[in-house]
UniProtKB/TrEMBL annotation:
<dbReference type="Pfam" id="PF15011">
    <property type="entry name" value="CA109-like"/>
</dbReference>
<protein>
    <submittedName>
        <fullName>Uncharacterized protein</fullName>
    </submittedName>
</protein>
<dbReference type="GO" id="GO:0005737">
    <property type="term" value="C:cytoplasm"/>
</dbReference>
<dbReference type="GO" id="GO:0005634">
    <property type="term" value="C:nucleus"/>
</dbReference>
<dbReference type="InterPro" id="IPR029159">
    <property type="entry name" value="CA109-like"/>
</dbReference>
């Protein structure tokens, strides 16, 4: 009698494992969709700040090169110092605002890494019950578990690498005016580089849209 129940019990165990992994995947994908909006908003905010920073650095460089005593403004003895102070304060404030936006990007990166890590943990816990066939099975409304796990790891890598490269780019001192002035070109190059890879996240969310509806 017991042996007759084993196949059914095994089947139910596999179904429970699939359901558990699917629910974990859906929660992660839902979070990534929300994070993608947060990430895009922060990147959008960074653009004008980087351009403003570059312009301020250029103005500050020019201010330091000009000898005011040889210009019609020579009568204003403290004008150059006041202007230099004002421009430097604007540079510091813009760098602070950029730091705030980078903190938003860091929170997204950390959250995505955490969410993906949770999914992988759930998959490992249920791996034996799932089996290879269940992990590779695709349906009309769902990619395979293996596919989705691979996409999530690619997405986590996308956020991680992009955050790191942007963070390193912005690690400039307020007195490194030449580096700050050229920052806008490097930033736009990164934008071009990662815009080409943004389809990874967008395509993944599109490919799992029916799966998320079915498991909601």
């Amino acid at each position: 009698m017991t042996s007759e129940l084993r196949p059914e019990t095994s089947s139910m165990s596999e179904e429970a494992a699939v359901l558990c992994v699917h629910q974990s995947l859906r929660r992660c994908l839902d979070a990534i969709e929300q994070h993608q909006e947060e990430w895009s908003g922060a990147i959008l905010e960074c653009g004008p700040l980087v351009r403003s920073l570059s312009n301020l650095a250029e103005q500050l460089q020019s201010c330091q090169k000009v000898t005011f005593s040889k210009t019609p403004l020579s009568g204003f003895t403290d004008l150059q110092d006041r202007l230099r102070y004002k421009l430097q304060a604007a540079v510091d404030l813009t760098l602070e605002k950029l730091h705030d936006e980078m903190c938003k990007l860091q929170r997204v990166r950390d959250s995505v890494s955490h969410q993906v890590g949770l999914v992988l943990h759930v998959y490992e816990v249920n791996g034996e019950k799932l089996g290879l066939e269940a992990s590779l099975e695709r349906t009309s409304h769902s990619p395979s578990i293996a596919d989705m796990l691979e996409w999530l790891q690619d997405t986590e890598k996308y956020y991680r690498n992009q955050y790191l490269q942007r963070k390193l780019l912005l690690e400039v001192r307020h007195n490194q005016l030449s580096d700050i002035k050229n920052l806008v070109h490097s930033w736009e190059s990164l934008n071009d580089k990662f815009t080409a890879k943004q389809h990874l996240v967008e395509d993944m969310l599109l490919n799992v849209s029916f799966f998320r509806e079915a498991t909601s």
